[in-house]
Automatic annotation (TrEMBL), chain A:
GO terms for cellular component: endoplasmic reticulum membrane. Component of the dolichol-phosphate mannose (DPM) synthase complex. One of its GO terms (molecular function) is metal ion binding. Keywords: Endoplasmic reticulum, Glycosyltransferase, Magnesium, Manganese, Metal-binding, Transferase. One of its GO terms (biological process) is protein O-linked glycosylation via mannose. Transfers mannose from GDP-mannose to dolichol monophosphate to form dolichol phosphate mannose (Dol-P-Man) which is the mannosyl donor in pathways leading to N-glycosylation, glycosyl phosphatidylinositol membrane anchoring, and O-mannosylation of proteins. This is Dolichol-phosphate mannosyltransferase subunit 1. Its EC number is 2.4.1.83. The keyword Metal-binding applies.
From TrEMBL, chain B:
Component of the dolichol-phosphate mannose (DPM) synthase complex. The chain crosses the membrane at residues 6-26, 38-59. Pathway: Protein modification; protein glycosylation. Its main location: endoplasmic reticulum. It comes from the Eukaryota. GO terms for biological process: GPI anchor biosynthetic process. This is Dolichol-phosphate mannosyltransferase subunit 3. It is found in: Endoplasmic reticulum membrane. One of its GO terms (cellular component) is dolichol-phosphate-mannose synthase complex. The keyword Endoplasmic reticulum applies. The keyword Transmembrane helix applies. Stabilizer subunit of the dolichol-phosphate mannose (DPM) synthase complex; tethers catalytic subunit to the ER.
Length: 249, 92
């Protein structure tokens, strides 16, 4: 019985630190924060939002400061950096200042909707998972704003990746995920890629290190403000990372 | 074992079987009668697998869920958020 008591105490003290790396997200930041607050206050979980702005010239940080005044510095934590550095280092920077025992990472551009966060948390609790990843490719998930070509590249790349790497997760390049804090730290330490393929390596390393991975279907609404990018250089980056992981993991 | 090594070991196992048939190391009437088919079987296999891949990928592209409702819901929430944040004194 003692175990049950301490379990519920642990549950009670669970805290979720949401990391929002931003670069020129002045338009989106207030809205994503408003949505996070709306859905997390409603779910009753303890949380904080850590904004890691990489010296955006558009004044994202100024807006973030205003938001901090409105919602309080216990909810909105600002950890800006001088200039644009890698995504991996942004996460490390965020983890250092995170007071939660779970870390949620998501994009600030409104393509990831905070309404799914309670689903991530529930699934994690149910199976005590190390990682919960959002997926656009499973029942109930999907994308909005993609043309045929974009869908073809996405599905084709996913098919080849599944075939070669058998990662045990359906969405490898997505970046809407929940991690146990210590596990995220270990994963980042074991990753070598930069840029968006970093997300793929994280999930492959998680499989390699035999962490448990769960999946939550998410809808992905492509950038409302700003331009979404998928060019030749992204595809080459992806192919390189795929071959690297194929040969080394 | 890395994924690359897994692939290489399975491919070489198949190659060994195929080569022993084609090279005449295993003798049987059935093998001799179907030699042409055995010779080209790797190519047939690759073509079939290619067809399978194209079919699966195209099927998944065509059935990729277009979450229109999610986009509409988000638009509504953006309007609500802007109004509420404006009322709270945010200017941006």
């Amino acid at each position: 019985m003692a175990a049950t008591v301490s379990d519920s105490e642990i549950t009670k003290s669970d805290k979720y630190s949401i990391l929002l790396p931003t670069y020129n997200e002045r338009e989106n930041l207030p809205i994503i924060i408003w949505l996070i607050i709306k859905y997390l206050d409603n779910s009753g979980h303890d949380y904080e939002v850590i904004v890691i702005d990489d010296g955006s010239p558009d004044g994202t940080l100024e807006v973030a400061k205003q938001l901090q005044k409105i919602y309080g510095s216990d909810k909105i934590v600002l950890r800006p950096r001088e200039k644009k550095l890698g995504l991996g280092t942004a996460y490390i920077h965020g983890i250092k200042h995170a007071t939660g025992n779970f870390i949620i990472i998501m994009d600030a551009d409104l393509s990831h909707h905070p309404k799914f966060i309670p689903n991530f948390i529930e699934l994690q609790k149910k199976h005590d998972l190390d990682v919960v990843s959002g997926t656009r490719y499973k029942d109930g998930g999907g994308v909005y704003g993609w043309d045929f070509k974009r869908k073809l590249i996405s599905r084709g790349a996913n098919f080849i990746t599944q075939l070669l790497l058998r990662p045990g997760a359906s969405d490898l390049t997505g970046s809407f995920r929940l991690y146990k804090k210590d596990i995220l730290q270990k994963l980042i330490d074991s990753c070598v890629s930069k840029g968006y393929v970093f997300q793929m390596e994280m999930i492959i390393r998680a499989r390699q290190l035999e962490y448990t991975i769960g999946e939550v279907p998410i809808t992905f609404v492509d950038r409302v403000y700003g331009v979404s990018k998928l060019g030749g250089s992204e595809i080459i980056q992806f192919a390189k990372a795929l071959l690297y992981l194929f040969a080394t993991t | 074992m890395t994924k690359l090594l897994e692939w290489l070991s399975i491919l070489s196992a198949f190659f060994a079987v195929w080569y022993s048939l084609v090279g005449g190391y295993v003798k049987h009437k059935l093998i001799e009668e179907n030699m042409k088919l055995i010779m080209i079987s790797p190519i047939i296999f690759i073509i079939l697998f290619g067809l399978y891949a194209v079919t699966v990928v195209l099927y998944r592209v065509l059935t990729f869920n277009d979450c229109k409702e999610a986009a509409e819901e988000l638009q509504k929430e953006i309007i609500m958020a802007k109004k509420d944040l404006h009322d709270k004194g945010l200017r941006w």
